[in-house]
Amino acid sequence: MSSRSAIRIAATVLLAVSATACRNPQREAMRELEKRGVEVSGASLLAAVQDGNTDVARLLLQAQVYSGQRDATGHSPLHLAIDRGFSAIAWELIENGADLAATTPSGVTPVSLSVAKGETAMTDRLLDAGAPPEGLTPDGDKVLPWAIRNGRLAFVRRLMEGGADPHQKDAAGNPLLHVAIEAGRRDLMAELLALGADAAAVNAVHESSLVAALRKDWRDLAGPLVKAGSDPNLPDRSGRTPLETAIDSRDLGLAKTLAAVGARPLGGSWGDALWKAYDRRELDACRLLLSLGVSPESRNTRGRRPLEAALADDRVDFLHLFLCYGADGRPLYYEACRRKRDYHAALIAAHGGQPRTLPAPFLDTPLGLAIREGDSRTAARLLDRGARPDQPVAEGQSPLHLAIVLQRARIVKELLKRGIDPNTPLSSKVSDSFLQVVRGGTLRWLLKNDTNVTPIMLAADSGCTDTARALLAAGARSSVWTKRNRMWPLNIAARKSDVKMMRVLLGKDPVVEQRRIIVDLSDQCAVIYDSSGLELFKTSISTGRKGYATPTGTFAITNKYRTWTSTLYDASMPCFQRFSCGDFGFHQGNVPGYPASHGCIRVPAGNAQKLFALTELGDRVEIQP
């Protein structure tokens, strides 16, 4: 090939490439529309959608006309396309930036319309494109309650996964679970709970979801609903709690189920419920309550025991019942003889005069009482005389667990001295009485909703560093986490901003500090001081810019990573030092001389490495305004 031919070919290729690069899709669409005599306007787009003319609609969108034009009824092109089943046009509108949150005058959104039309693919496309999962259906109902009421599980799941509020209520004021219950949609209950529907919300007449489910006789849902947050003690519209109804109807199975999930008689007193049943001479109700663990020694307002009342009233049936459930008949033997009621005396004697053992929380031990009173001397004396250090106390847990949550460090040490395992697991069923003595809300939540809570976690929540140090010295494992939420002891201390406890868990003295770091947000500098207050190192920094303010307060360095990549911003963060198990800390980065970060504290490259080398886990960091 001659050089002249090669030049001609190259020029031709260059012209073709230039022509392609200069193409303007918008201009081409406008030319085509002009050829067809179509006005380039939002009104034309609306007309094309109304006519189902996909080709013209695509050209108008390519020409970038306004896609929010409304018809006489207030419907946008996207509403019309969905309503009339023009999927191709709807997809073009979505791809070209149509308003996905647009509502009609009656509150219908593209998503709510798509759901009402049963358009699964369209709903998925809208939600994937960022459309809000809300709005009213054409018949005026909120879209999520509508989907629940009509049994549209796929739409329910997709809407909630797309961010629909699980706490919302329908137009009548009924939460989502109540909507499903009243509609008889039992098949949706488990899915709604898994998707985060609010089990604690009450309906328009202030009934719990548990009450509503039991009205449908869905008693197997009692446990899951209460576990998810439904209050088992809220009354129904007639003022009766589920447990009262079960007791009055002699439904032992349901009563046991309710009691197991935390139901209590109206007023909260099991003893009052027993006395009420006795006063009515309801033997079956008394037997049911006693079988649930109510103490037969429950005294009334005059200090009288049920057994004493049964003897005085000459009710052998109740006398026998109370004795069978462990009432102490020995103090009444003389009274039975004095009244010349030989059959009463014989009955008491037949029971050996020995009360039967009752389950917690009615049993207590002297050691448990000493722990509650904080009497370490008596506790030590009891242990020396043979008190079992592992026998559960009234709260249903071991003496070690009770001593930890009540901050009885000396008693904890006494128990550990006698060989109690510092990793003794808690009883799987945590009683309300034990939860009441736990200090922090985080730990109470974990005890109710998680497993593998350990003694060192109890200590981390209690704030008593002496207890934590004693446990660690005895071999408590701090590198464990709860099974479901993967909470470490260090996380619990961090949640409470307890720097001293975090230091203990990281192997440091809670009081004696080798160094501390002061971060001054105003001066944009950080300074390390030694234990005597002398400055060891100072560096310029860059903290959180507007909208990403760096938190102030006192923190501890809980993690150090020579190399780290941000899980939030996918950015390299060398020499990262995390504060109090949080999402910010020191790291190497650009320091322009003013706040510029997303909340972390940037340190110049050389200084970041030196700062990393000078600090240790557990060091206190004070961030000042």
Automatic annotation (TrEMBL):
CDD domains: YkuD_like. Keywords: ANK repeat, Cell shape, Cell wall biogenesis/degradation, Peptidoglycan synthesis, Repeat, Signal, Transferase. Pathway: Cell wall biogenesis; peptidoglycan biosynthesis. Belongs to the YkuD family. Residues 1-21 form the signal peptide. Pfam families: Ank_2, YkuD. Residues 515-624 form the L,D-TPase catalytic domain. This is Ankyrin repeat domain-containing protein. ANK repeats lie at residues 73-105, 139-171, 172-204, 395-427. The active site is at H587 (proton donor/acceptor), C600 (nucleophile).
